[in-house]
Fold:
Amino acid sequence: MKTETTTALPVSKYTKLLELGKLVTITGAAQLIIQLIGFVSAVIVIRLLPTQQYALYTLVNTMLGTMILLADGGISTGVMSQGGKVWQNRQKLGLVIATGLDLRRKFAVGSLLVAVPVLLYLLVHHGASWLMALLLTLALIPAFFSSLSSTLLEVAPKLTQDIAPLQKIQVHTNILRLILTSLTIFTFPWAYVAIFASGLPPVWANWQLRKKSATYADIDQSPDPVIRKDILTFVKRILPGAIYYCASGQITIWLISVFGSTTAVAQVGALGRLVMVLSVFNVLFSTLIAPRFARLPDSRNLLMGTYLKITFAMILALAVLLLFVWLFPAQILWALGPAYANLHTELFLNIAGSCLGLLAGSSFSLYTHRGWAIKPVILIPLSIAAIAVSAYFLDISTLQGILLLNICVAGFEAVMHMLFSVIMINKVSITN
Structure:
C-alpha cells in the first residue's frame, strides 16, 4: 500500500502537467498562426493605404478599442469572477453569462454616446471630410457590436479549459479577415473599406462562440437581479479605473493625435502592428492562466507561489523579446515598407512600453479575476501624477518623447499592480 501511495501522487502531477503542456501547445501554435495571418493582413493595409488614410485607420481602431473597454466596464471580469464559483453547473453558469450579456448591451449605448463625437472630431482634425468621418464611424459598427458578447461567450469554454474550439474559431476568423481585406483593399484603398472588411468576420465568430458556449452554459435565460447586483458591485469598484485605462492605455495615440502630425499618427499605428507578437502572450494568459488563477482556492501560499511563478516567467519571456528587437530592428522594420524603415529607436521604445504594459495588465487581470480591485481614489490620482511628472520632463511633441512617456507610465503601473497583487494575496487568511 505504501508503494502505491508514493507513486500515485507523482503520476497525478505528471498527468496535470501533461494536460497543461498540451493546452499551451495547442493555444501557442494556434496563436502563432493567428498572429502570422493578422500580421500579413496588417502589412497589406500599411503598404497599400496612403499615409493620411492609414492615420485615419489608426485613429478608428484606437477608438474601437476604447469603445469596447467602455462597453465592458469590468463586466467580463465580473462574469469570470462569478462564473469561477459555479463553473461546473451549466444552469448557474448560464445565468451569470446571460446577466452579463444584458448589462453589456446597456453599457454599449453609453459607450457610443461618449466615443462617437470624440472620434468624429479627431478624424476631421486630421483632414477627413465630414462624409469620410461618417463612413469611417459606420464602418466600425460590425466589429463593435460583435465584441459586446464575444468575450462573455468565451467565459464558459475558458473556465472548462475547452480551448481547441476557441483557437479554431479564431484561426478561421483571421483567415476570413485576410481574404476580405485582400479582395477589397487592392481595389478600394480607403480606410473605411479596410475597417469594414476586418469587422465582418467577428460577426461570424460570434455566432460560432454562442453555439460553443451553449455546451457548458444555458445562456438563454432571463437576467438574474441578484447576480446583476453582484456584478454591478464589482463594476462600480473597477469602472472608474477602466475609464481611466481607456485614456492611459492608448496615451501614445491620444497625445500624438492632439500634439503631433498626421504622419506621426501613421508611424505610431504602423509600429503598433509590430506589437501584435505580444498578442500571443496576451491570449495565452487570458485563455490559460487567468481562468486557472480565478479557480484557485483561497490559500495564501498557493496564490503567492503561483503569482510569483507567472510574473517571473512573463518577465523572462518579455526580456528575450526585447533583446531580439534590439539586435534586429532593420529586419523587423522591413515588413512595414520604406516609409517606416528609419524608426529603429522608436521601434525599441514602442516594444519596451508595450512589454511593460503587458506586465501591468497581467497583474491587473490576475487580481481582478479574484474579485479584487484598487480603489479608484488611489489608482487614478497616482497614475495621473505619473503622467504629469513624465510629461513635464519629456518633449511630447516628438514621437520619441511620446514613446518615452508611455514607458514611464507603463512602468509605474506595472509596479503598482504587482505591489497591489502581493498585498491582496497576503490578506488571504487561509495559508495552506
Notes: The two ends are 26 Å apart (CA to CA). Residues 23-225 form one domain. DSSP finds 19 helices and no strands in the chain. Confidence is low (pLDDT under 50) at residues 1-11.
